């Protein structure tokens, strides 16, 4: 009996060993999974620089008003003859147009959030500009011959923007986006011939679009268009007085003095079209799949 039990145990051991070996032989050999980079991810902080050119436009619009005072004196006196006669002059338009073009350059920084193929971001930039021009301010629309009042100089010294960005990834490394938000800048304007100046720092708005391409996980290059509207800068009032003396008017022994005073009130509206190229460095590193 003992021998029978020992024989059965040995047979069962051999059977189990063979079954395990057969099962292992039936399974295919599988290698460990390979670490794979899932692709470029745009999320994170970035800084960069840019260089471009702008086609600015300034437009002057306003009204020239004035009055004329006529006073008669006795030549022998001279003694005034009655009070002066004051007449208001008809208001005339003030008109001016010129192109304020030039190069610009500066830096930007921002943050991106990527959600699938969509990107949402915030960006701020500050630009130094060399946009300037000289144009005539006239008393007639279109500045026909003889209507020029005085020449004026214009210069955009600097500007900046704070914008949102919404983009779509055409490929993992190609971003197409629209952008818009706040714009602000400093426009200097002056008319040295009449000794006045105006302009200053104002806030406005901007919209635009662009494309950005990722060279690697940190560096990218971009091209961008912006339209900027800084609104209207109020022109300083300019006044001039001309005195005309007429002897023997209205008759012999009298002298007529005519004084004309004019005042110009106007505003200069500034808009800009900007094309620039730039480079960005993103601080976050590549994304690595975890297993």
TrEMBL record:
This protein's GO CC annotations: cell outer membrane
Alphabetical keyword list: Cell outer membrane, Membrane, Signal
Transmembrane segments: none
Signal peptide: 1-21
Residues in Outer membrane protein beta-barrel domain copies: 21-270
Listed SUPFAM superfamilies: OMPA-like
Cellular location(s): Cell outer membrane
Major localization listed first in the record, in broad terms: membrane
Pfam name, any one: OMP_b-brl
UniProt-listed InterPro entries: Beta-barrel_OMP, OMP-like, OMP/PagP_B-barrel
Family of this protein: Belongs to the Omp25/RopB family.
Protein name: Outer membrane protein
Species of the source: Bradyrhizobium sp. LLZ17
